[in-house]
Specification:
The chain is globular and about 55 Å long. It is 39% helix and 17% strand.
Length: 306
């Protein structure tokens, strides 16, 4: 199970998997208790799904959250309480990334990425869902929408990568040590902190510990994301909320803002810049983030019902 067959993502050792699950469970203790948790079988593996529900919101269209690279459901700890007040929330652990989901087939292309995620969306009981993604999760949200968007009512893209522009070269170079298990932990933590715009990522922060532990103990075998083109952005028919962090290391924020404004064509689509925010925006500004998302989704649904 833990041998490197050069095909599938997975934990490199049983000890490493245990260490990760301990960190994962530690953060899960700090978030609201899921109303449901279940597995969804896809063409590329089984995906862990959680549903968070606050009484009185059952009839609302749910929001499915997609985490960032090397992250998983617990990374939404700062955001779940606020978002749950408005509607049901689904979260998943991405296939091929550290988490409880288990990859069983090689993921080679962007289409493969879209297929398994679409398998999950299709098997959710609701007829319609809103989709939101942070960082790499934002790219995943756009990628699956371009593939097939029958159930997706809107997209919320939180400081996404490869969507409104390329990752700066210095960021790519800086991220290499963070993704190599053999690199000393202290160096990886410094690189992760740089990626997060100076945010703490060491063991004193449970989510930082979770991500560092996942990177050190999990070998990902995913393809590099294909950058979303401006033409593809113009193809998105549903409303899109783009939320960018002014101080993000993952893109040129002003240029990315302009690309979104120029190419998102739905009248309800809009772009927001959070001043002084880093790529760790969901932990820095949870209340403001929730307000922007809730206001956007409510406008979308008013328009859907007219």
């Amino acid at each position: 199970m833990f041998q490197d067959d050069d095909k599938l993502g997975g934990f490199t050792t049983e000890e490493g998997q245990r260490e990760f699950i301990e960190a994962y469970n530690s953060v899960m203790e700090d978030i609201p208790k899921p109303s449901e948790e279940f597995w969804v079988e896809t063409k590329f593996g089984k995906v862990k799904v959680y549903k968070f529900l606050e009484e009185g919101t059952e009839s609302k269209i749910p929001l499915l959250l997609l985490p960032g690279k090397s992250a998983s459901t617990p990374m939404w700890e700062p955001n779940l309480k606020d978002l749950m007040k408005d509607r049901p929330i689904y979260t998943i652990d991405l296939l091929g990334e550290p988490g409880l989901s288990v990859q069983t087939k090689k993921i080679v292309t962007s289409t493969d990425q879209a297929v398994w995620l679409n398998n999950v969306i299709d098997q959710l009981p609701e007829e319609t869902v809103h989709l939101a993604g942070l960082s790499f999760g934002g790219w995943s949200a756009v990628n699956v929408t371009l593939f097939k968007s029958a159930k997706i009512a809107s997209l919320t893209l939180i400081d996404p990568v490869y969507v409104f522009g390329p990752i700066p070269l210095k960021m790519i170079i800086a991220s290499i040590p963070a993704s190599i298990p053999a690199v000393p932990k202290s160096i990886r933590e410094k690189m992760l902190s740089y990626i997060a715009g100076g945010a703490e990522t060491d063991e004193s922060v449970p989510i930082g510990k979770l991500i560092e532990t996942g990177m050190r103990n999990y070998k990902s075998k995913l393809p590099m994301p294909k950058e979303i083109t401006e033409e593809q952005l113009r193809e998105l028919k549903m409303p899109v909320l783009g939320i960018l962090a002014e101080d993000s290391t993952m893109h040129h924020s002003e240029e990315s803002l302009d690309v979104g404004i120029e190419n998102l064509k739905n009248p309800l689509s809009h772009m927001v810049m959070f001043p002084n925010a880093s790529h760790a925006i969901n932990g820095e500004y949870p209340e403001e983030l929730a307000k922007n998302i809730v206001d956007f989704l409510q406008k979308v649904e008013i328009n859907m019902n007219n």
